[in-house]
Queue: 2 jobs
Job 1
Amino acid sequence: MINQRRFLVETLTAIGLILAPFILPYLGFAPNTVNRILVWGLFGIGFDILFGFTGLLSFGQSALYGTGGFVAAYLLTRTGFPHVVTALFIGMIAAAVVGYLVGLIALRRTGIYFAMITVAIAEVFFFVEFNPLAEWTGGENGLPGVPSPSFDLGFTQFHFSSGWSLYGFLAFWYFIGIVIGLRIVRSPVGAVLRAIRDNPLRASAVGHSIHGYKLTAFVIAAAYAGFAGGLLGIMQAFMPPDAFMFDTSAQLIMQTAIGGTGTLFGPLLGAAIWLFLQDFLQAALGLGAAWKLVLGLIFVLLVCFLRRGLIGGIVDLYALLTRRKTEPASESAPAVAEAPAPESLSAAAADMLKARSTDGYQGPILQASGLTKRYGGLIANSDINFTVNHGELRGIIGPNGAGKSTFFKMLTCEIPPTSGRIVFEGHDITGRSVTDVCQLGLTKSYQVNQLFTRLTVRENITIAVLAALRGKFKLDLFRRIDRIPGLTEHVDQTLAMVNLSARADTPVASLAYGEKRRLEIGLALANSPSLLLLDEPLAGMSPQERIETVKLLRLISRGRTMIIIDHDMDSLFELVERITVLQEGRVLVEGTPEEIKGNPVVQEAYLGGVLEQ
Amino acid sequence: MINWPNLISQMFNGLVLGALLALISSGLTIIYGTLGVLNLAHGAMFMLGGYAGYVAFTYTNSFIVAIIFGSLFVMVVGIAMERIIIRHFYGRPDEDQLLVTFGIGICMVELVRLGFGSLSLTVPPPPALAGITSLGFMFYPTYRLALVGIIAVALLTLFIILYRTRIGMIVRAGIEDSVMVASLGINVYRVFMVVFGIGAMAAGFAGIVNAPVVSLTPDMGEAILVQTFVVVVIGGVGSFPGAILGGLIAGEIISITSMINPGYAYVMLFAAMTLVLLLRPHGLLGSQSRA
């Protein structure tokens, strides 16, 4: 949505910022209110990247806002440092460094733990500011006398003191902030952040170092917070200690949620509504202290009924209104999708997307020896020895609870084995991370779909391809995602291969089950793995879909090693060359499909006895 | 400044605070463990218990009535909150749950501020427990001494409910695996409501029994909530014994550091939390299963 026309959003923002002083006074906004909105809006850009885009809800932004603000204010008031803008940047860097350290601790855990830890950190900063550091921060008095910026251009002097003249200064920085923010969310890093928000497990399984990216988002948010904190001091000519208060974090979160998350502009809109209502309720309606209750109620109602805030609501409404016009066009789309892709096209894609080369390594591609997994007293896998050769197409069968999925999880390093060793292409991968293993060329499609549910089909595949093209961590924050060489081709080929080209721009949520299943395989396939594991690729499919998928799997297997778990014996026996039978966590037998079919031990395991004829 | 009587009396203060934190945290942790919802309005419920008790006390002049009314009132508020709002959030992401409970907490605080003003209010301790008691080597406020006993009884009651009753068994099973419990044909939603009520009541009870020790202000719950988080992180999310152990540790850290320099109390508390996170990321008594 954001990415439709280049610089459109930036241009509109610039126009809006220029027009604001001419329009807003008529709507009852005082210049000081507008300035405060800008500072909150800038603060919020970073927070939205952290929360709206990466899904990390931090209650500790006040710590970073205060840090940046007080460092800048201290430089300007106590040390006689003359350059306002330089001081702002130093404050920003200080906040980013603190953010990095805080992030290292807070990001050790996710979800509610992350929220709780950030709350605790914010509170610590507040107390540190008030007590041990009071000598530097002025304690509860704050730092008064923060100078306003002025620039001497030789022939004339610009002085941004207060009101609308200060507005120009703040609007400039807000504009820079939004340009950088848009750049970041449109970069490959931005795409990965969204993937982390939607499905962190899958994001790491397709080969992204999610810890690194989360820390990046945290530091970006800290830098924005630090710079905005510095601006707060300049705007008020005083650095208030309440910047450090938990209420600051709370207000930021509520403003962002009211305005809308994941839009970058949500915090600005939220701040405008918040501050406008605050003035309006207090002054015009004479509600006094009750204004916060009203805002609290609005916030709760919005969280309940309008998940994505006001901007999200407007976008949905717009989509609802415009859908009627485009409906006839989209009706024909499913029909196209149902038609099987031309065999030749898929085949061509398969050739282009062939497995990576193996660096001249000879010998079995995968060798697991003595692999055991215990959960307390329960033995899921016991002493499994398993070897797969290059180019092999292997099937694994076994009754429910035989430990097949556990075995796969150990092979892809999602869970560590209790004992045993896994060697992939000559590398010992035991104890490595799922991300590293994916980067080496071993991927898995999951038994239960693990997709990025809020993204489109194309975006899903793009996430996986990005890991293949950029490695597990790269800080190309300012690179446009469509400037990555080979990305579009690679994504198109993968889409063609899993026969989803016609559905590329469909959101995952509106795919049919069979299509989701194919996308699941596509995600595992996108980084051209040399060994692909498929955990029940046929599960839940209709007979027709099974036939199509078997055809697809055969195509994928060209020049690639594959191991497939499935309960559909007929399809599997037809597809694979060798079969391993697991039972109660052990390898029961191994052999060609013919051997397995006739094996009395296998029949015993499955049917409880051999049919006497 | 630092001498033996002082240290011991601070350790007693730590015990009182620790017991209080243990009680509030166990409420928070059983709600989270069973429902998967982190209730950010928990601090506000603690505050609400204090104010509800204050109202009951002004009308009846009986501390016992204040305790009963305060706890029951918060329990009813908790159940209403679960029925009306929280149950619509079970299927929604963690972040939405955090936001909504956070918002509800703010509404509670502002509602109380509207009704009672921002000035602090006090509830006197019951006459029988007023004054100070000699412990032989030092004097200590009687009510604080009694408070440890009162909270210990409350924790014991909670323990009995959790470990010796049918509903407790369901709750503990639900903490392990709520899907499994649901598939055994138990109406988990009714259990959820009861658990939310009990958890809220624990906070409300703590609020009113603590009222004679502190003064009531509308935002008193905020600091307690933060301390409760630290307790839960230290003890392990979803663990009742963890909440008690974490509460006592946090209480002692805050009290003993305060004796030396109050400004560092939170720093030390935070340092302890960081240490636990580094060495035992799931908390001292937490299990691996709850991420």
Job 2
Amino acid sequence: MLDRRVHFVIGKGGVGKTTVAAALALILARRGRRTLAVETEGHGRLAAILGAGSTGPQPVAVAPGLSVAAVDGRAALEEYLELVIPVRRLLRTIFASRIYQYFVAAAPGLKELMTVGKIWYEATREEAGQRAWDAVVVDAPATGHALQVLRMPQAARDTFGAGLVQREAARIVGFLRDPRATAVHLVTLAEEMPVSEALEAHAELTGPLGLPLGWVIVNRLHRRRFSPALLEALRAAAVAAPGEERALLAAVADRAQEEEGWAAINAQHLAALRAALPAAPFVELPFLFVEEFDRAALEQLAALLEAAIAPARARARRRS
Amino acid sequence: MTLAELVAGHRVVIAAGSGGVGKTTVAASIALWGALGGRRTVVLTIDPARRLAASLGLASLDAEPRDIPAAVFAAQGLRPRGTLAAMMLDQKGAWDALVERHAPAEARARILANPFYQHLSQTFAGSYEYVAIEQLCALAESGRWDLIVVDTPPTRHALDFLEAPRRLDDFLDRRIIRWFVRPYFSAGWSALRAVNRTAGFLLRRLEQATGLSALAEISDFFANMSGLFDNFHERIERATAILRGAETAFVVVTSPEEQVLGDAEYLSSKMAALAMPLRGVVMNRVHAEFRAAGRGRSGGDVGPEDVARVAAALDRALPGRAEEAAALARNFADYQALARGESLRIEHFAAGLPRRVPLVRVPNFPRDVHDLASLAAMHVHLFGAPAGSPGPPG
């Protein structure tokens, strides 16, 4: 799986896509693969986590073998037109015209197409006879929009008549569907809404889109179990404890009950997800109790991800 | 001002914020509060979890508000003095509904079958947000409701919802449309080229570059919809007037997570610029921080240095169960760290809010909220403790 050239990390808003994408990029770079981490929504958060001040379309090196860049459909279109129409003065006129602005806004899916086109271009671009990047990790938009982006090359190939872009769209589709080149990782939480959205995305990815699924990454799992008997004993002890300790012990019991509650919810939805996707390679990541998601937290997540993908890889090898 | 006073004092409450923070649940809980307090309430919801939808009587997609039967309340021990209706927006059929409502009958079928329209209705960002606002206007203008609570679509950026009317207005700029409906467009490139060399050349290059050959379709689409667009501008003005009106309150729903809170901060700062009134903040999924009473200058913090004290107290409380006591102590310390980080971020966020904007904290319940009773259980956090609270309005 780690040998793929493009890794799309997708999932519902708020499930931790960006941090997982950052951890994956870090792992790849440390294995000696020249890696480009790409953000697609212009938040600058992926760049911030990886230690870059800001990002634009130009890759910024953040660590040995690791760069980060922002891909924006509109900017990618202008870059592309510069390749097709190499007359600077004419380009300036075009970009400034309202017809162009209108066209970009109205042309259905054009920005999505250019986003995925730019990612493909970076993944296959060569410099001085060798590939510019060994791996591209994409922090994709939230599921619905991410699927739209991934759908566009196919739509372009099928809808638009023969021509330059029809040919390029067909090449992009071929690349995206190649299980040696591409992996789409699905990040989710083991809760009701994220799981149902993940299942819908999975059906779309493996069905109509025909894209190679990577890992199903179940993030932020609560795991600690505290039995009702233990909690009962603790609560009884709290009531009997001297004044100062009473509130403290009650709070300890509250937190244990909270953790137990989430662990039960997570276990239930994780089991349902695994049952629904029996063949998918699962990666489970624990909830990180940190004050803020800083560099140390990223390192911790990367270590956990690295450990978690080892068994997933071993299972995948056994199957093949 | 409290959130209870805020909801009591406005007819339209809009829950804004980025996706995945529990907006739908908070909106439903606010609506339930209004209904319990005696108001004729409707909640416009977007994408509720299946079980919540079922408990709101939204088992199937429905464009009409449906009253929740009194028996459903009674079964959960609730006695509303008003009524609660719920309706759900159909994300996929949003544009179709607009066309059916506003397009002249003879043009409808042509519009719906137009390939450009089909692409547009699926991909144009903002159209869905616009439909939600349009629906809000219809509810507000019907005069049937004392309280309308709106759950906003899960947008990439929370701001998208607020900017949707203006963006759609720009998009449907009539001067541009007029340009596109000129006869030479549908006639094709050569005709266009004869009229306007630059435009013809430009569009031909764009078409080559992008593979779009939809020019005739675009032209045909606008020709069919031109009557509809005249209406749009006026409707957008009315929608904007409602959004900015004195009867409307925006409540930002957020969680204390770093990224989410960053989005909420940006949203709050932009609302003033858009003249959309931010009136309240619901901080959802907060982890409680334990602060011991009367511990002097340290302000009651229980920090990492207190772990030994906590462990000792647990050893005394659970004699002979050292392993479990250690696990409990570790779990407590972890939750304290989480809560401390959240406290700092919330404090920083609150400092940036305009004065008199209430911020309420809702704990991170370890359960799926999926029935009226669990929605009602949020009220103590949203609107104050039952004892000594001003009580439901009405």
